[in-house]
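Consider the record:
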Amino acid sequence: MAKQKLLSEYEAAATVGMSPTLLRWFTSHAPKSGDPRKLKVAKEENGVVFFEEPELLSFNDWLRHPWPHKPGKRPNIPTGIREEIKVEANGECAICNKNGDTCEAAHLNPVSKTKCNHPEELLNLCSNHHTKYDDGGYGPDEENAEFVKSFKASLHYHKRRLWVMQDEVGRKLFLLLTDCERLGDEMKKAKSPDQTKAIERIVKASLAELPQMAPVSHADPHYKAYKAIETGLSSLKTAGKKEDLAAQLRQAKRIKQEYVAALGYVACPLCNASGYYDGADCPVCGGDREIEERIADRVDLTEFELVECPLCEGTGKHEGEDCPECGGEREMQRRFAGEVDLRQYDAVDCPLCEGKGRYRGEQCPECHGDRQIPRHAAEQIDTSQYDEVDCPLCEGSGSHEGEDCPVCQGDRQIPRGVADEVDVEQYRNVKCPLCKGRGQFDGEDCPACRAQGEMPRGQADELDLSDYKKVKCPLCKGRHDGCPFCGGEGEVFKGDADSFDARDYR
């Protein structure tokens, strides 16, 4: 088997747009509830983690697929991803840059349709901007709603630039100039003061860095190119005191064009200098738009042509379901098709039940009693994850706060894989976010914490405060005379209204 390309955690972060911190988190935590898959580490050297490129890309694609969830519930957003989008927005709302204490993980596309918690689907928004976004506050025209999605992409690129592991200052200068170019495009899309301010914050940060970028070694291959734009960078620093941001960005774009010409870079032959290909950052230039001519000359565009999927042979189906290689699309880029190993889909004995179909007296949880599974699935199974260990919440006592432990149900021990996923902090009591610990809400016992004033952190994190806003009763429309749904109040909580079914009152 060919040796796979290894990526440092910083190169990996730049490749998939997730921070090194989150990638490390994925190596020890399975993000999808009920699915044991974690990101595999290829090696660790001098404190830096390395990943095999195919494993990284496969894991990233798997994160984009629908997440497991209970009927009527949203898939749970794991702690690592919540922290990722919070850090991405500097702990505040990505739009207004404040109200950090009320921020929520907002889905850019309806989670009811996507069932996906990939970080690129989420943005840290305060409750005010979250409500505006969900209610069409940036619309109802699609143009303004699209700004938030586009801004997320720019914020992603801005952070990606910071993850690039690069020793040459000249290379950093090129990335920074490209960053400014993209931000200039985003400023043109802004349709409201909030949107403009959101862009301006990262524009100012990038422009402030530009004049500081200078290769110090004459041996640096970027040095001569830098000298060609040195005067322009100096004037940009002066312009910052008297010209508006849009003018400075236009100047930065001109400087980039001069820098690209001096470096001998050319337009990326795959994306034609747009930075995007097939709906994502261009895989050749990484979204940078221009690349070295010697690299461009080696690009084989036929590798990116669509060909028939070798597994499903263009049907889109494999064993009655969407093909796991092409996702049901029937085609894939030639470069990916060449990496498909059909042997990985051969049926082999399940390594957990050893082909018996039963494990510890019950149906095998891995093969579901079928005895055999595809080779690629068998290789993912870590049988040690099924060893019984003390429950981490009750520490093997079987009880928690005077009742059966909610994790092990009083059994004291659970499989290691389940134990590894338990976040004990989610069971620590915190103040109820609805009543702020008072136990009373709107003059009555708090309906969220049942007047206790506190609840487990996990429950508090999932609490949607908008469910407790009062709205007109959907049955009596606020007329309330003897209404059995609102009890004559004329109003009900929004959460109750959302679950209202008129058929129950016919």
